[in-house]
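Supplementary notes for students who missed Thursday's class. We covered one full example, reproduced here. Read the sequence, then the structure, then the short commentary at the end.
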Amino acid sequence: MTILVVDDSRIMRGVLKNLFNDLDMGHCSYAEAENGEEAFKVIQSHPVDLVFLDWNMPKMLGIDFLKQIRSIPKFKTTPIIMVTSEIAKANVIEALKSGATDYIIKPIDEKIFKEKVFKALKKRS
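Structure (token representation):
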């Protein structure tokens, strides 16, 4: 399984990888991007099974990446979980309407993380 972790914080990218590793789902490889522009390049050149996506990043916001990637047919079903501190109901609704598979608010609750990851991966199957 290949996971793309998109966050401008190197520390948060590490946290997300550690949380996912704790789910003990076998061998995973990771690709990382600091913003939506980088993520777009990565996802076009490497197949990914799941994307963790922050909202606020330089160069290209996560929501803009989400909208752009969902406009490409081969990425319509790739699970994309927004992991962000954006808690406004309007933002959650916008992300889900734009194609986010799910939405996790920082700081991350491990139980919620696990539930949402399994739910997202099940939808993909």
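Commentary. Residues 2-102 form a domain with the Rossmann fold fold (CATH 3.40.50.2300). The CA atoms of residues 24 and 55 lie 27 Å apart. If anything here is unclear, bring it to office hours.
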